[in-house]
Each structure stands twice: as C-alpha cells, then as structure tokens.
Design a protein that fits this description.
- The structure is a single chain.
- By secondary structure, this protein is of the alpha+beta class.
- It has two domains: about 1-60, 2-Layer Sandwich (Dihydrodipicolinate Reductase, domain 2); about 65-95, no CATH class.
- The chain is about 35% helix and about 20% strand.
- A two-stranded antiparallel sheet has the order 1-2.
- The N and C termini lie far apart (about 35 Å).
C-alpha cells in the first residue's frame, strides 16, 4: 500500500517547525512531495541564498525504523503517570 497524502504529515510538521522556531513563512507552493517507488521516507529542507545553499536531509530506507520508534514511545508511555502525554514530551522537545 502506498501513501497518497501530499505533502506528507512530516513535511507539514517540518514547515510548521521552521515557521515557529525561525520565524520564516513558507508558502504552500514551496512544499513539494514525491511518492515514488519504494521510498519509505525522505525529507529535505533547503535554505538558499545567492551563491550558497544549506540542505538538511533525512532518509529512511526501512519501515522498521518507524516501528522501532513507536515501540520506544510505547515503552516510555507505559512508565508515565496517567494523563495526556505528547510526542514532544517523549522526545524532550519544549513546546
């Protein structure tokens, strides 16, 4: 089964994070998604200026990475007191 959402939820969250943390507004037409072949997950953020580019790239080649992350989160959640917990809390990211 191939995912059909575009842009992906991860791409949308990356854009939101850049907007929140760096104060950079990214118009929707600047966010691109490609669903092709057996790509599990590849996300690239590029900042460009005349004469230079900065790229941040994350590539997943095996879906087990996502399953292992879910298991880590479940083990962490099991140790928490009852209540509502967030992924940001699990990752130690301040809101």
């Amino acid at each position: 089964m191939h995912k059909r959402d575009a842009p992906s939820g991860t791409a949308i969250r990356l854009v939101e994070s850049i907007r929140e943390k760096a104060g950079i507004e990214i118009p929707p037409e600047r966010v691109h998604s490609i669903r092709a072949g057996d790509i599990c997950g590849e996300h690239e953020v590029e900042f460009s200026c005349p004469g230079e580019r900065l790229k941040i790239l994350h590539t997943v080649t095996d879906r087990r990475v996502f399953a292992l992350g879910a298991l880590d989160a479940a083990a962490w959640l099991y140790q928490q007191p009852p209540g509502l917990h967030t992924l940001e809390e699990f990752l130690g990211i301040e809101p």
